Amino acid sequence: MHIRGDHVELVVGGRLDVRSAADARTVLHSAVDDGVGDLVLDLTELDSWDATGLGVIMGAHRRAGRCGRRLVLRGVPPQMQRLLVATRLHRILAIEGGIGVETLPRV
């Protein structure tokens, strides 16, 4: 897993899972705490995430809300879009361009 960027936009790549969760949490919390306005997470380079990785995203979302900021997901890969829809988190998280639920293949 790698994260690069600043306090306004971060690009997350690789795998966001139990092995990388602690490092990702530290970087995301720092970006939320040190910035202002929306924090955009570009996920176009993300290969996969597991429940722990999704928990890190939700934790950053909650922290951003407490800081008066908004966490915005950009470039969510289709397989991860399906997971967000299945867990109904697409209704809670801000997703740039939204998720076309009707265009996702049924699982």
TrEMBL record:
PROSITE patterns: STAS. Gene3D superfamilies: STAS domain. Pfam families: STAS_2 (PF13466). Transmembrane segments: none annotated. InterPro entries: Anti-sigma_ant, MlaB-like_STAS, STAS_dom, STAS_dom_sf. Residues 1-107 form the STAS domain. Belongs to the anti-sigma-factor antagonist family. PANTHER family: ANTI-SIGMA FACTOR ANTAGONIST TM_1081-RELATED, ANTI-SIGMA FACTOR ANTAGONIST TM_1081-RELATED-RELATED. NCBIfam families: ant_ant_sig (TIGR00377). This is Anti-sigma factor antagonist. It comes from Streptomyces marokkonensis. The lineage of its organism: Bacteria, Bacillati, Actinomycetota, Actinomycetes, Kitasatosporales.
